Amino acid sequence: MKIIQKALAMVGLLSLCALFIYALQDAPTDENFETKLINDYNIYALQIPEDLSFAGEPVPLQNPDILERMDRELLVNTYWQSNGLLMFKRAKKYFPIIEPILAKHGVPDDFKYLAVIESGLTNAVSPAGAKGVWQIMPATGRENGLEVNSNVDERYHLEKATEVACKYILKAKESLGSWTSAAAAYNAGNAGISRRLEEQGVTDYYDLLLGEETGRYLFRIVALKEILSNPKKYGFNFREKDLYTNIPTYKVEVDTAVTDFTQFAKRFGINYKILKLHNPWLREPHLNNRSRKSYLVEIPKEGFYSYN
């Protein structure tokens, strides 16, 4: 009996030793943790396409300086994954509004990527006072027919702001001769780009020595165009239902003052927040409208929002 007990004890001891050894082998040691990390997440150098272009105008990648600058922007925007994924989501929502307006004015479709780098397709506000998806300055907005004041600021009206952006781009193209230079002028101004070209005795944006922001500008646009056009190639994975979409709306004409937009919104079965989400150009909780101007206010169709 004692022999059997000793044998069983030995078996138990060996079993415990085996479990202990197995546990040690499977434990997250520095070595196997690093191996797992390396296998799960890899950073790769990118293969730069040979035929990158903007608005049909090729990027001169045979120039080593141009190649390095293009590589930088592709790397930065590929491996800033959270921001990249947001761009895909917002593009699905806003590109269908922007694209037909560009086409109507004969502005190349690639300029929609300019809006991406200007604002991230949000109603951004710059330190210099530029506002909206197209980052329009107050004077530029007013010169091109937008109402810009503390009560109504149509730089936040995507359709109207896109119309103004088209006018600016077309004027720059006529003045500077190429779409690439026109895009650069959106950042640095027509006069700024024209002066630099003359001072440096060149005719092409890619031959200019520029400051950091304008010097990176076209490369950032082209990088976002390449990435947003080829999500799988750059490692972005999503389903169609993961992307943002526009809520269907109808327009209500308003040609009088509105004293209280909270009460106005309730008339259409929505709240003030939802009214402002669809009409960010209405900057205050009321509309002055002393001139009895006609405004079109967007109201979401019934059933797309629920709130208490």
UniProtKB/TrEMBL annotation:
Pfam families per record: SLT
Domain of life, per lineage: Bacteria
Annotated signal peptide: 1-23
SUPFAM superfamilies, A to Z: Lysozyme-like
UniProt-listed InterPro entries: Lysozyme-like_dom_sf, Transglycosylase_SLT_dom_1
Domain Transglycosylase SLT: 100-204
Listed Gene3D superfamilies: 1.10.530.10
UniProtKB keywords: Signal
Family indicated by similarity: Belongs to the transglycosylase Slt family.
Protein name: Transglycosylase SLT domain-containing protein
UniProt organism field: Algibacter luteus
